[in-house]
Design brief:
- The chain is mostly helical and 139 residues long.
- 78% of the residues lie in helices and 4% in strands.
- It has a two-stranded antiparallel sheet with strand order 1-2.
- Helix 1 packs across helix 2 and helix 1 runs antiparallel to helix 3.
- The mean pLDDT is 90.
Length: 139
């Protein structure tokens, strides 16, 4: 962008020497510096846009800078979100693996065929314990 606008501004200066107010002899580096400053929403003392065509080029360069900032911000947000999604997927996979290992240990330890069978056994135990507590509270 800076190089393109350097060429555009230098060309405007050659086509219309009154388009810019230039201190000293215009050089390629001065126009590069002018374009770089315009990209950062600044200006330099050596070159000032005077005519509408040079002012339009300056405004177009500032607009291009704004577009570049928006594009950069969008890319950064996308990359950040993508990384977070990958991290969450890894956490989910780890949790699923740990849950499978826990299920396997429960099945082996209590000689059960499935988690549903374990839930049914727990429900039975809860019922038994409730009956015991009820009986103890009466006595």
């Amino acid at each position: 962008t800076v190089l393109s606008f350097t060429a555009i501004n230098l060309g405007l200066s050659k086509l219309d020497p009154q388009a810019f107010e230039i201190i000293g002899k215009p050089t390629l580096f001065q126009f590069f510096h002018y374009s770089f400053s315009a990209l950062l929403f600044g200006s330099i003392a050596e070159i000032t846009h005077v005519r509408p065509i040079s002012e339009a080029a300056f405004m177009l360069e500032e607009f291009a800078a704004l577009v570049l900032v928006v594009i950069l911000a969008s890319v950064l947000v996308f990359v950040r979100n993508d990384r977070q999604v990958r991290d969450l997927d890894a956490v989910i996979a780890d949790l699923q693996e740990e849950a499978n290992r826990a299920e396997s240990r429960i099945k082996q330890t209590y000689r059960l065929n499935s988690i549903e069978e374990a839930r049914a056994e727990i429900a039975k135990l809860q019922g038994i314990f409730l009956n015991i507590f009820e009986w103890l509270s009466r006595n």
